[in-house]
Amino acid sequence: LLFFVCYPLPWQCFRALCCKGPPxxxxxxxxxxxxxxxxGKTSLLSQLCSESPENIVSTTGxxxxxxxxxxxxxxxxxxxxxxxxxxxxxxxxxxxQGVIFVLDSASSEDDLETARNxxxxxxxxxxxxxxxxxxxANHQDKPAARSIQEV
Length: 151
Description:
Blueprint: H1 10-18, E1 28-34, H2 41-48, E2 62-68, E3 73-79, H3 83-86, E4 98-104, H4 109-124, E5 133-138
Parallel strand pairs: 1-3, 1-4, 4-5
Antiparallel strand pairs: 2-3
């Protein structure tokens, strides 16, 4: 049993509850998520989508996830980070409105240098150079993780 106390008139309360119509559409933003294999791109997106962290497999090729927030929806195109896939990243940049670059802060010096080169390449790409970038130094919970200053 549900009771509503409405003032001044009960029909105004009913109308306010039932006749508002659909909520206004949330704006959608298209983002691209890049980084080397094992940096944590898939885990990040799974966490943002409230998916189970079990059975996460590195992305081969690309995947697209809609990440819902209260006031917006982020359509995130995650691109695989393997050597043979990175050369095709630029084919997926068109239409992006922002970039998430994920790096493994506990990776080897060689991998960190490769990530740095890929980041600089993305920052200079004509389709990305004017867009906002989020650079995420992932795996900060690992003992070998570097600080932000070291990265």
